[in-house]
Amino acid sequence: MKKNSVKVISFMILVSFANVVLNLIPNIINVINNFVGIFGENFSLVILIQIVATLTSMLDVVEKLVLISLGIKAVNQGTVAIPIVDSLVKKYMR
Predict the structure, then answer these.
(1) Which of 10, 37, 59, 67 is the most exposed place for a label (fewest CB within 10 A)?
(2) Whole-angstrom distance between the N-terminal and C-terminal Cα of the chain?
(3) Sign of dihedral through CA atoms 48, 31, 13, 85?
(4) Helix H segments across 1-94?
(5) Which residue, 53, 61, 58, 57, is CA-closest to 29?
C-alpha cells in the first residue's frame, strides 16, 4: 500500500510539472505580445494557445482516469504499470 501511495504522489507531481511546462507557452506569448505592444503592434498565436489548452485538457482527463484506476487497483491490492513513475519509485524507494 505504501508503494502505491508513493506512486500516486509521483504521478501527480509528474502531471503537475507537465501542466506547468505546457502553460509556460501562452505566458511566453503574452510576454512577447506585451513587449511588442509597447511599439503599437500586436502579436498573438491563437492557434498555439488553443493547442496548449487542448493538450492541458487532455492531460487532465488522463490524470483523472489513471488516478481512478490506481485507486481501484489499490483497493484490490494491485497496481497499474506506469513506466516512468515505476522507474522513479523503484529507484528511490527500497
Answers:
(1) 37
(2) 14
(3) positive
(4) 2-37, 46-75, 83-92
(5) 53
pLDDT higher than 70, residue 1: no
| Cα(67)–Cα(4) distance, integer angstroms | 11
What's the pTM?
Answer: 0.73
Q: What is the pLDDT of residues 34-59, one digit of tens each?
A: 888 888 888 778 888 899 999 999 99
Residue type present at position 86? D
pLDDT score of 57: 95
Closest CA to 78 of 20, 14, 25, 3: 3
Q: Give the Cα separation of 40 and 14 in Å (integer).
A: 40
